[in-house]
Fold these 2 entries.
Entry 1:
Amino acid sequence: ILNVEQSPQSLHVQEGDSTNFTCSFPSSNFYALHWYRWETAKSPEALFVMTLNGDEKKKGRISATLNTKEGYSYLYIKGSQPEDSATYLCAPGGNTGKLIFGQGTTLQVKP
Amino acid sequence: EAQVTQNPRYLITVTGKKLTVTCSQNMNHEYMSWYRQDPGLGLRQIYYSMNVEVTDKGDVPEGYKVSRKEKRNFPLILESPSPNQTSLYFCASSLERADQPQHFGDGTRLSIL
């Protein structure tokens, strides 16, 4: 797994808006896809780890889907709040333990 | 409290002076990993360890060494630091393998002059 792309690079939304962003990765040698939330001046915090094609995970207002055949994952945030402002990182990995992080999508939610 | 502890949190040092950043976890995790974060480049994996005495190179291992003699500790060693190793470093651990969420330490900001 060499090339991980996240889009958009940054996003500004109003409080209450729902939003989504994409993580694209090569589908060969796929084992697991991680999503992390990274707030400024803190360390990354795990949101989800998904392994199966068609997987959907949910945590409060945040959910994610996975398509391993075409190599993408979507992260959705419903009714964005200012505290959702952070950088969201995805990281696909093979079964060797190696993880490749995307550069992230930085979300800014305006009150 | 379950945590990953890195020390030091901040360090300013000079080129060529060997340094070690320690990482310790109290969760009995098998898997540990080191990353560096640079502006515009995101998080890049330096080394990882699937278990005691088992370590593997990540994407950017040059200039770094690691060891995993005990399950809880995974120190990062810079034998001869250079300015291009100035960065923010994170240690992380997880239960096992790559399909478990990783717990990150608070980070170590290194400045090599």
Entry 2:
Amino acid sequence: QKEVEQDPGPLSVPEGAIVSLNCTYSNSAFQYFMWYRQYSRKGPELLMYTYSSGNKEDGRFTAQVDKSSKYISLFIRDSQPSDSATYLCAMRKAAGNKLTFGGGTRVLVKP
Amino acid sequence: DAGITQSPRHKVTETGTPVTLRCHQTENHRYMYWYRQDPGHGLRLIHYSYGVKDTDKGEVSDGYSVSRSKTEDFLLTLESATSSQTSVYFCAISESQGLTNEKLFFGSGTQLSVL
């Protein structure tokens, strides 16, 4: 079983809808959580970084962490066609430097 | 892509041949990483470097070696390429590994096909 599970999608939504993405993980040692966005034929870029359980907002993006359930989410409000990309979750333990990535969810926002 | 250049962008090679991928950065960041990305597996760390001539293994290091003789360059070598090493390879850099900095900057990737 993988340490981090993420539905590969694709997730297709109409423009303006809320996109809801999530990852589950099995190792309670993960303490730091990130979301990366990856456009086709490009490298990933960091979108959100969270440490504690709860919500963190940045513009149209909200990251949510529930450590008790080992579940993290990313919500994209008022989705745009330019949000069409693959979204990868990543997480790290308190000690060490290695990031563990989910497999990514492909999102398509249709005009 | 944050001052990171990967070369080549595409390569096709034959099984058993050595292959070297290059990552060049202009950000003067201390840490450099090599990842591979495969469908269903996400990004997996191959090797990383925390300074000139200082490198360490990641989770999928078998069959790969790295070298860093200058701050700006990090080379990944497939000693004898196999078909299982067909993948997209990403170089990444980061300024520090402190608690407040998880920001990895990624290059645009190298698509490697081993026939």
